[in-house]
């Protein structure tokens, strides 16, 4: 069975290179290509390929492009081929419906295997990407701060000492220290400054 592909990438050299690679494989055929998501969607709708091999960061690309492909051409499986492997790229792409995620430094044989596997309905991930996904699955979501802990951290952010915080909240300094210990654990930090900075970053403090 011949696997029919559409290549979507905004770099002509990349498209040319991929097309040249696939010519060598009797069972892999490039039936179309496009330089952006909008054009890629039109080509995929017209050609009804088995695989859409796409970059992520390009005009009209990314997770929204993958979602539209899944909606408009449900028979096509989306295989991402990109240079970006951050959580902000990998997870949205997979959530949107991509069946696989490869990096552009992958050996050509790995790309060939991935295309064939994806066409057979198998999920394909580069080792680095697979490690990120597993780490995200294994890492529990950050614990929420209680209302009292937020109040304590808010006073710390204002520059209050433990003694001043205790006086303001009518609690003991020991209780303040206990709250801070819990805060450090939940935020994954080890000191007051890091706790305040992390809390601001996560939107836990106004």
TrEMBL record:
InterPro entries: CheY-like_superfamily, NreC/VraR/RcsB-like_REC, Sig_transdc_resp-reg_C-effctor, Sig_transdc_resp-reg_receiver, Tscrpt_reg_LuxR_C, WalR-like. Signal peptide: none annotated. Residues 138-203 form the HTH luxR-type domain. Keywords: DNA-binding, Phosphoprotein, Transcription, Transcription regulation. GO terms for biological process: phosphorelay signal transduction system; regulation of DNA-templated transcription. Residues 4-119 form the Response regulatory domain. Pfam families: GerE (PF00196), Response_reg (PF00072). The modification 4-aspartylphosphate is found at residue 55. SMART domains: HTH_LUXR, REC. This is DNA-binding response regulator. It comes from Planobispora rosea.
